[in-house]
């Protein structure tokens, strides 16, 4: 593979190229230039991934504050389809974290669709960030190809930039599985979900589709069922103080979240 350069975006011309990539990735109107330019000049971090000076990916983040600490809100990461399995996403997030530390930020935050297994694996397993809050239908109705027609549930990620990545070694335990998949490919809440003592147990697992968008394209009602059934389990786990810690790649059709306190 050709050498990919990841660097900070600094000019309006580069932000225009970012719009082009954004439009191609999401097939919707891109973020206005005045917004990205303002973020760039007020503590935000905007990156581009380039192959032979052609932008093939971008990362857009801006400064945030929760009343206690400043942080970087990582709003959008987009990579052209031909390069989405090339590891660019990890490198861009690592570059973003490096710049954030240099600027004095202690934390990065962002949201992601919990049924997108590729994003979950990047956020939790590769980066070592943590899913800390579940937000049902967070963005309301969206009309891009990835979200159209489904509630926009999201997991809120926090990445402590001063902590060393944990050496995770979770072993899948079917006795602690709260949601699996039946023979028809539908989500199936298990007996463990109804009988477990969430105050005493330390680790739980739940299945999500390996390729959620493929299910959405072929069987929309099944995709909606995955959204609503997993929501029940996610909400219960977060309400009892669990965090999303990892994603274990399972058999071909499903992967497994690891939740721990």
TrEMBL record:
SUPFAM superfamilies, per the entry: Acyl-CoA N-acyltransferases (Nat)
Membrane-spanning ranges: none
CDD domains reported for this sequence: NAT_SF
Short name of one Pfam family: Acetyltransf_1
Ranges where the N-acetyltransferase domain occurs: 4-147
Protein name according to UniProt: GNAT superfamily acetyltransferase
């Amino acid at each position: 593979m050709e050498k990919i350069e990841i660097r900070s975006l600094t000019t309006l011309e580069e932000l225009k190229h970012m719009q082009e990539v954004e439009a191609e990735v999401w097939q919707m109107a891109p973020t206005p230039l005045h917004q990205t330019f303002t973020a760039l000049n007020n503590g935000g971090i905007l990156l581009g991934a380039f192959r032979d000076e052609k932008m093939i990916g971008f990362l857009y983040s801006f400064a945030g504050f929760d009343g206690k600490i400043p942080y970087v809100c990582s709003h959008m990461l987009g990579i052209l389809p031909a390069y989405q399995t090339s590891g660019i996403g990890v490198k861009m997030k690592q570059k973003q974290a490096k710049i954030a530390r240099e600027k004095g930020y202690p934390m990065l935050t962002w949201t992601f669709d919990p049924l997108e297994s590729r994003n979950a694996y990047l956020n939790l397993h590769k980066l070592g960030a943590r899913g800390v809050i579940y937000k049902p239908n967070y963005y309301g109705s969206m009309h891009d190809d990835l979200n159209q027609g489904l509630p926009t549930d999201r997991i809120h990620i926090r990445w402590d930039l001063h902590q060393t990545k944990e050496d995770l070694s979770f072993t899948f335990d079917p006795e602690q599985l709260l949601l699996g998949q039946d023979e028809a490919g539908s989500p199936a809440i298990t007996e463990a979900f109804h009988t477990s003592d969430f105050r005493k147990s330390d680790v739980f697992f739940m299945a999500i589709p390996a390729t959620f968008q493929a299910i959405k394209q072929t069987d929309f009602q099944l995709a909606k069922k995955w959204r609503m059934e997993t929501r029940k389990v996610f909400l219960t786990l977060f309400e009892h103080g669990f965090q999303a810690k990892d994603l274990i790649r399972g058999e071909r059709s499903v992967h497994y979240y690891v939740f721990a306190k």
